[in-house]
What does this fold into?
Amino acid sequence: IYHLALIENGDNMVHVHVAESKDTVGALAGAFVAEASAKAIAASGRFIVAISGGSLPKLLASGIVDNKSVEFSKWHVFFADERIVPLDHEDSNYLGCHEKLFSKVGIPREQIYTLDASLAPSDCAAAYQKNLLTVCGGEKPVFDLILLGMGPDGHTASLFPGHNLLTENEKWVASIVDSPKPPPKRITLTLPTIRLSKQIAFVAA
It folds into this structure.
């Protein structure tokens, strides 16, 4: 059984959709994101979204790349977490998203916000946080949607069970140098940032 859990933030409502096949999960995810995109663009002229890596880009792509109603040119894309590796490295979430999704739709490259892997982890996180705040245009980063996956140990983004990053309450983007899952050096959105999002979707197959 494949599960797609959609969490709408702000009204304490949790919607869980259970699909019979992995293909159906992709279709549900694509339809959900297309609707979120349309609502955000109608309200503000743009769609600010954070995407996770792993299997999520492939699932999402299967349900949205052929949807001609989606205004991809108005998307601004960040990453829920990212490994501190070059963008062409096999561990890069950007590369996985590019191969499965970005290369197939019309999101302007300058509206896909990537990290600077040449920086030290803490500086890398600080620079990414600065970009995030600049795009969001305020003191707090408010996403229209954050798309999250879930690892076998229960981690989401690069927030791992029992890790001290779970208690981070000041930074919007934090670095991690001891990730239990390789590679060890990463940046991640923190729980305060995730909580601010207008909508959150966990996609787990």
